[in-house]
């Protein structure tokens, strides 16, 4: 069943701040096999001009996707999460995410489409720091694949 | 932002060092924990097959995280990445054995932009299939 088009353009209230911790960045860097000390060693990060360790470029997805969860799991929208695969992902950074950041995400549904029985949802997440400065924008395309005919 | 590659030293067509990244079921469990994405298609074979997938597949975001390493290891400073986007064209299927799958990534400079930036186009394959499409990063060089 096609998703409700009236959700297009809907913006959700900013999330509560997510506190980026050094150890969380370390855990994520290790999970993706990263060895660059800029993720784990504050001195190495400072040598690159950062005030603390920074996060790998895709780290912020964990935060924006959690924010998008409100959309994805909204029963009124009716997206079948068990059939959802990730279609596209894009980030535009004003600066890297770093330890000590307190980040809020404002999610907006940019588009809802139905293509060959698949439901396609585009969500934009604007990420700001505690000072209100823009850090990164994340565009996420989710595809709920059509259920096979029984 | 301190990239170790200078803008003046690269040309359109400059190739970045190619990398191969392994991924096993253990990798996926670890990534699920670190990222908070516990969708069972990434760790539960029965579930994956029930929803029509060939087997457990890697998180697209894991593949995306590996692919950008070709760029960030080249520039030195990951903070030099200005933009990064991909399309997930095929899943990386991860069999339940000790070898798992391999993700092979290459990249080359596709355009020189303003502000000392270049666009790098990435190619990522696994099992001979292209797993990322439109995979592009804009990175600011020294």
Automatic annotation (TrEMBL), chain A:
This is UPF0336 protein LK07_13610. GO terms for biological process: fatty acid biosynthetic process. InterPro entries: FAS1-like_DH_region, HadA-like, HotDog_dom_sf, UPF0336/Enoyl-CoA_hydratase. Signal peptide: none annotated. Residues 6-137 form the FAS1-like dehydratase domain. HAMAP family: UPF0336. Pfam families: FAS1_DH_region (PF13452). Belongs to the UPF0336 family. It comes from Streptomyces pluripotens. GO terms for molecular function: (3R)-hydroxyacyl-[acyl-carrier-protein] dehydratase activity.
TrEMBL record, chain B:
GO terms for cellular component: fatty acid synthase complex. InterPro entries: Fatty_acid_synthase, HotDog_dom_sf, MaoC-like_dom. GO terms for biological process: fatty acid biosynthetic process. GO terms for molecular function: fatty acid synthase activity. Residues 13-124 form the MaoC-like domain. Belongs to the enoyl-CoA hydratase/isomerase family. This is Dehydratase. It comes from Streptomyces pluripotens.
């Amino acid at each position: 069943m096609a998703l409700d088009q009236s959700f297009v353009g809907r913006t959700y209230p900013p999330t509560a701040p997510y506190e980026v911790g050094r150890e969380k960045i370390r855990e994520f860097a290790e999970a993706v096999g990263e060895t660059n000390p800029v993720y784990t060693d504050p001195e190495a990060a400072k040598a690159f001009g950062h005030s603390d360790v920074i996060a790998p470029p895709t780290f912020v997805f964990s935060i924006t996707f959690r924010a998008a969860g409100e959309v994805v799991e909204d029963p009124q929208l009716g997206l079948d999460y068990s059939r959802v695969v990730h279609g596209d992902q894009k980030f535009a950074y004003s600066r890297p995410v770093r330890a000590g950041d307190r980040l809020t995400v404002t999610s907006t549904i940019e588009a809802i489409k139905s293509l060959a029985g698949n439901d396609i949802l585009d969500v934009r997440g604007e990420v700001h720091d505690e000072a209100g400065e823009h850090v990164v924008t994340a565009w996420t395309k989710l595809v709920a694949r059509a259920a096979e005919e029984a | 932002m301190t990239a170790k590659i200078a803008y003046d030293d690269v040309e359109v067509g400059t190739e970045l060092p190619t990398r191969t990244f392994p991924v096993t079921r253990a990798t996926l469990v670890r990534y699920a924990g670190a990222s908070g994405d516990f969708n069972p298609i990434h760790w539960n074979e029965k579930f994956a097959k029930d929803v029509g997938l060939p087997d457990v597949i890697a998180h697209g975001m894991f593949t995306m995280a590996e692919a950008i390493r070709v760029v960030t290891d080249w520039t030195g400073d990951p903070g030099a990445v200005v933009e990064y986007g991909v399309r997930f064209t095929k899943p990386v299927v991860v069999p339940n054995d000790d070898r798992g799958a391999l993700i092979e990534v290459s990249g080359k400079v596709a355009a020189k932009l303003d502000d000392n930036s270049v666009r790098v186009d990435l190619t990522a394959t696994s099992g001979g299939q292209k797993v990322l499409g439109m995979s592009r990063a804009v990175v600011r060089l020294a």
